[in-house]
């Protein structure tokens, strides 16, 4: 047993070492990624409940690494957060999204904000300055926050949200239903929208309970006067259910995967067909 334990320990050590090396590499490469134009934004359309009309898009960052190819944001966002790179990355994302949004009249552009980015003292002024510099109507920009934003310092978060709301921006509570106290947050903080987490839809087909939960969340959101969006909609069955229970917006592979800004231009009919 002793021998086994030692083996496990050394295996663990090698695993840790590799993980650290991977991290270090990501960190070093990420620093230059913005300057080398390796980052790219894709946009996933959000549709009206019937799936016919595009009402908004969500910006999703991609990293086209010269050696490793496309790196998932789930892999590099946490590293950027740990290494103090998230604000620079977040500012780049917001500016880029604003530039694209200028072409797209009448729809919302949603941008994901990391809790660490949100907690920076100059977050509010930076957002307002970027929107101003890029000449984008703030009412068309929606910031997607997760509960993590609020948990650490609720008062500061509330103030920042109020200031940004006063400037015209809107807020969506992302991954709704996955945290502990979403209901409290909904009452206290001025969100405009909740996004039902994908995990509820994933299990909807297998258990009746998830369908009941989704139904309840939609009711709750509507009762509070919020827009309700379901993310990760993959089947026509899910879409029919969501529409039937009164969900306002749907987003997912069933309708469209995240695509380039040029593709969004096409989908919005902004480029002529030849
Ligand atoms: P999220 O904000 O919950 O974004 C939704 C994720 O679900 C995206 O993954 C999207 O591509 C994926 N998705 C959309 N429809 C479907 C579907 O029908 N089925 C399935 N299975 N997946 C679907 P992605 O682009 O890999 O992003 C992962 C996460 O990384 C995001 O989760 C968000 O938390 C974070 N992220 C992405 N871009 C940014 C960014 O610019 N800033 C920050 N701070 N975080 C970002
Ligand atoms: Ca999101
Ligand atoms: Ca989400
Ligand atoms: Ca998520």
UniProtKB/TrEMBL annotation:
Residues 23-272 form the EAL domain. It comes from Alsobacter ponti. It comes from the Bacteria. This is EAL domain-containing protein.
């Amino acid at each position: 047993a002793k021998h086994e334990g030692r083996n496990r320990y050394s295996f663990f050590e090698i695993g840790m070492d590799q993980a650290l090396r991977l991290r270090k590499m990501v960190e070093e490469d990420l620093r230059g990624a913005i300057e080398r134009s390796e980052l790219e934004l894709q946009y996933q359309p959000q549709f009206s409940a019937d799936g016919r009309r595009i009402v908004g898009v969500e910006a999703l960052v991609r990293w086209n690494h010269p050696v490793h190819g496309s790196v998932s944001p789930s892999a590099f966002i946490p590293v950027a957060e740990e290494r103090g790179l998230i604000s620079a990355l977040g500012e780049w994302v917001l500016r880029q999204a604003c530039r694209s949004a200028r072409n797209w009249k009448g729809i919302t552009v949603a941008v994901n904000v990391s809790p660490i980015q949100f907690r920076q003292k100059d977050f509010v002024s930076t957002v307002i300055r970027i929107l101003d510099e890029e000449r984008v109507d703030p009412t068309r920009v929606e910031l997607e926050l997760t509960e993590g934003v609020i948990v650490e310092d609720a008062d500061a978060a509330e103030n920042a949200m109020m200031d940004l709301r006063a400037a015209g921006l809107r807020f969506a509570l992302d991954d709704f239903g996955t945290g502990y106290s979403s209901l409290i947050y909904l009452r206290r903080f001025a969100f405009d929208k909740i996004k039902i987490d994908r995990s509820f839809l994933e299990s909807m087909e297998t258990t009746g309970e998830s369908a009941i939960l989704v139904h309840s969340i939609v009711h709750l959101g509507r009762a509070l006067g919020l827009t309700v969006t379901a993310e990760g909609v993959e089947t026509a069955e899910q879409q029919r259910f969501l529409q039937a229970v009164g969900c306002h917006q749907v987003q997912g592979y069933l309708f469209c995967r995240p695509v380039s800004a040029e593709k969004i231009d096409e989908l919005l009919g902004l480029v002529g067909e030849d």
